[in-house]
Amino acid sequence: MNYMPVILWSDALVFLLLAAGMAAAWYVRQHEHLLLPWRRVARNSVAMASLLVLSQFLIVGFLDSLHFRTALPQASGGERVYSPEVLSVFDKLVGPLRTHTEKTYSEPFALTLYAKESVTDAQGNVVRTYPRLQYGGAHLADESQRDADVLKRALIGGGLGLLVGLLSFYLTHRTLHCASGCDRAVSVVTLILTTLIGAVISLATVYHVLGTDKVGQDVLYLSLKSIRTGLIIGTVTTLVTLPLALFLGVAAGYFRGWVDDVIQYIYTVLSSIPSVLLIAAAVLMMQVTIDTHPDWFDTAASRADLRLVFLCLILGMTSWTGLCRLLRGETLKLREMEYIQAAQSFGVSSLRNLTRHLMPNVMHIILIALVMDFSALVLAEAVLSYVGVGVDPSMISFGTMINAARLEMGREPMVWWALASAFGFMLVLVLAANLFADAVRDAFDPRLNRTEAGA
Amino acid sequence: MIAYLIRRILYAIPILIGVNLLTFALFFVVNTPDDMARMQLGIKRVTQEAIDKWKQQRGYDKPLLVNSAAAGTHKLTDTIFWQKSASMFVFDFGYSDDGRSIGREIAKRMGPSLAIALPTFLIGLLVYVSFALLMTLFRATALDMAGVALCVLLMSVSGLFYIIGGQFVVSKLWHLVPISGYAGGTDSFKFVVLPILIGIMGGVGSSSRWYRTIFLEEIGKDYVRTARAKGLSELRVLFTHVLKNAMIPILTGVVVVIPLLFMGSLLTESFFGIPGLGSYTIDAINSQDFSVVRAMVFLGSVLYIVGLILTDISYTMVDPRVRLS
User: Fold this and answer.
1) How many angstroms separate the CA of residue B35 from the nearest CA in chain A?
2) pLDDT at A403 over 60
3) Which residues are within 8 A (CB) of A108 and not within 5 positions of it... i.e. 6 or more apart?
4) What is the reported pLDDT for A447?
5) CB proximity A148 to B under 8 Å
6) Would the CB atoms of A273 and B288 count as touching at under 8 Å?
7) Which single residue of A228, B107, B124, B143 could bond B200 by disulfide (Cβ 3.0 to 4.6 Å)?
8) What is Dmax (Cα atoms) for chain B?
9) For residues B180 and B213, what is the distance between their CA atoms, to the nearest angstrom?
């Protein structure tokens, strides 16, 4: 076998989340009353359009979580040796993006490097000029053909993408006319997405659509790789937050007395430390541990990955307190309700009462908190990485991209494309997540007046 | 009221002890001082003597909790816990790695931090509440929708973007103010104006939307209908009735952060080169100066607890029904 699958810690957590998500979806499908709020979400066209955008990010993130190592060419009879480089299925799919690295900075769609260099020309003279890129637009003879070529490729790719979009629309609706049962916003977003993706695919094979960074890596590739890091921070953290907040919050509210006192004490202590400082302190300590135990890791990727998982753990440990407080308050209210009192007087055990009667009734709070937290966590990653307590510097993320590009703002002329791409991708991801989260909140929050929720 | 305050302050003590124990565990138990020394001196080929010297210089060469070699009360006081953690209760933070007194450094850096944080907070609050009131006034119209959409857009932008973009446009393109730096006295104005503006900008989205939700919740209540029925103008209802009654939820979120203003903002200060506590913390994190980080964690939680007490006091000021007892 030429490939050895590698399951990093974060991959395992991603699979776990995926399995949990699918199990939850299956369970909800079986129960009409649970499905009801989701139907409300599904009727919201903004929510569905942003879900569509989010799903693109999720697909990239998932493909990027299937890791493997390739076998190195081996001496005959020797033991099979695998490359220390850990790749993902996504890396394989976008092959040229990853391997087409230039020497240093180049602008989007550029044919030449960004800085002048001494080049020996055909006559053997040394001239200072902008050297041609090794890959970007290498099929063109000179600069003058570029614009026409870009336009041609964008049209062909975009046209094909549009065709695919229209075809899929036709297959699902059996008509090209958007009538009842068809969401106009969603259809338009679908067509825009397919067109855009088509155009980018067609262009990215021969150009650096978003330019290259300091070591010549394609910025589009970096941005796409950052998606996984952002998604993992946004989702895996909740894996830590959720059980802690749920069990402690509900227990504090239900049992009251000393249990409540202890749990309240714990979360007051944790929340009284400004979260950035607590995260910084914990991450610094984790760094010490990781650096003093280099023998724990077989590849650089696994080290960076463990650091990412630890960062999620730390973020989770510092952010469960808010949700816990909410759940405690809600449980305090619910335990006085008649149906809980009735269950208690029938002699239903505490455990059963909690799992059967209380927890299902606080689920909407949890769901709302989770979707609302996601975008904040994605944004926090960039800030933490800038502060120096985020992901491993070798791990591609929005934060490390911004951090690397920040110093280039001072260059003349300015290197703007890496920053712009990182911020652009982040904006699209966070905006879609925010819009979707709002729709989920509107659909699930029983306090919201339904007529007002639409306004 | 006095009795209540004393009780609250007494209640703060176990919390601070908890914070102290937590930082102690984080900094000395999870990783031993030996690990930290090895980290700072370079992992490979570091001799035990060098580690011992590093520990001795910083006073980390004592036992963690109990010093069995010492006599009498020194059994407890001649330990890392007593000298490094317990001493923080009297605000004795010790010395940073470059040999300066952390306490004096904090006192010196609070001024610049406050010069940015306080105006950001006050003007920001004014802007957010006004914007939210405006949206409430035009609720359920196209203007309100546009306002909410703008808020969602603004809160989806990374805070780093506001800083980098603001520095680029205002300082580099327009040359209005210096990109970064700080000076005392009246000169400070041109240095602080951009960080303040950016700080306000960064919070517009989430804060205004939050206040709008609060106002909308109030506006559906009976006393508002009564006020309208009396023939009061919508503006008057908003400003004198709704705003006053929305004070409690607003204060809950606002007063807590007032003491924390002293801590400054990590991002803004480091981008603009303001010599405040935020940049002090960032520098400490980057140079892995553990004693400074420890001191800031403790200071932060003290200020947070002060903020909680202030919040309770502020409730009594805006709502006569609230009595602290």
Assistant:
1) 7
2) yes
3) A207, A208, A209, A210, A211, A219, A417
4) 66
5) no
6) no
7) B124
8) 84
9) 37
Higher pLDDT among residues A438 and B37, named by residue = A438
What is this structure's pTM?
0.89
| Nearest alpha-carbon partner for B97 in B30, B19, B37 | B37
Q: What is the pLDDT of residues A219-263, one digit of tens each?
A: 899 999 999 999 999 998 988 888 889 999 999 988 888 999 999
Q: Within A69-206, where are the H helices?
A: 89-93, 95-99, 146-173, 184-204
DSSP string, A284-305: HHHHHHHHH-GGG-SSHHHHHH
The interface predicted TM-score (ipTM) is 0.86
Q: Where are the alpha helices (DSSP H) in chain B?
A: 2-24, 33-41, 48-58, 74-77, 80, 102-137, 142-155, 159-166, 188-219, 222-229, 234-236, 243-245, 247-254, 257-260, 266-272, 277-286, 290-318
Topology of domain B108-288, per CATH?
MetI-like fold (1.10.3720)
A262 and chain B in contact, CB less than 8 A? no
pLDDT digits (tens, 9 = 90+) for B52-65: 877 777 777 777 77
Mean pLDDT of B189-205: 89
**Residue B258 touches partner A, C-beta closer than 8 Å:** no
B71 Cα to chain A: minimum distance (Å): 33
For residue B44, what pLDDT band results from cuts at 50, 70 and 90? low
Measured between CA atoms, the residue of chain B closest to residue A271 is: B301
Task: Read off the tokens for B218.
Answer: 């109030």
What are the boundaries of each domain within chain B?
108-288
Task: Tell me if chain B has a CB within 8 Å of the CB of A386.
Answer: yes
Chain B residue closest to A452 (CA)?
B140
A7 Cβ neighbours under 8 A, 6+ residues apart: A15, A67
CA distance linking residue A233 with residue A375, whole number of Å: 10
Q: Which residue of A has its CA nearest to B219?
A: A452
Q: What is the strand order of the sheet A3-6 is part of?
A: A3-6, A67-70, A87-88
Judged by a CB distance cut-off of 8 A, whether residue A450 touches chain B is no
- Contact flag B293-A265 (C-beta cutoff 8 Å): no
- Indicate yes or no: CB of B285 within 8 angstroms of CB of A455: no
For residues A208 and A218, give the distance between their C-alpha atoms in angstroms, rounded to a whole number: 6
Query: Residues 389..408 of A with a Cβ closer than 8 Å to B: which?
Result: 389, 398, 402, 406
CB contact under 8 A, A386 and B267: yes
Beta-carbon separation of B156 and A386 below 8 A: no
